[in-house]
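Give me the 3D structure for Ribosomal protein L17.
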Amino acid sequence: MHHGKHFRRLNRTMSHRKSMLRNLVTQLIQHDRIKTTLPKARELKAIADQMITLGKRGDLHAKVQAASFLREHEVTLPKLFGPLAERFKSRKGGYTRIHKMGNRFGDNAPVAVIELIDGPGDLKNQVLFKTLARHEAAKSGSIKEIVEALSTKESGSVTSTGLKNKAIARHVPKVLSSNKWELADLERKVAEFSIQGGGKRGKIFDATETKA
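Predicted structure for Ribosomal protein L17 (212 residues):
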């Protein structure tokens, strides 16, 4: 019977597919975010979450399991069992996020950026800071008013913030809780983003340019 055997083969043999995913998860841990095709990013997401879970376990067996799959051990293992395990210590799952980036010129393949969330230069946080900076510049309301409106948890609280993008408005409490920030911390981040003229966005490692 062929039950439970349906997954993306990515037009590769099993050995080539496994080798490619090992390279991708190694690059993701090294660079925090990489650019690849959307089907590869979706396959990579589950494997990256498993690696983070091993990092949070932190015992000898977890290190042996991670070392058997990852490459570049001198870089990936200390980062996985150190900073990444600490970053996601209180998070129960969902350690990665996929951003669709349109289609690639040439073969029209769908491209995406997959990143480890809550890191420096988190793309969704960058969009939030940019939105709040524009909101303040247009004098549509202060950050304090937005946070207070969202803290009420009443129906229509998201609409009352004045932000057109409701998904961005709902992301404000998540940023505050995951980073353990107060209102002043969020205001400082938005101010830094405004002063830097869009913030410092790290270069995205392009995994589509490497041979995997």
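The chain is about 55% helix and 10% strand. Let me know if you want a second pass.
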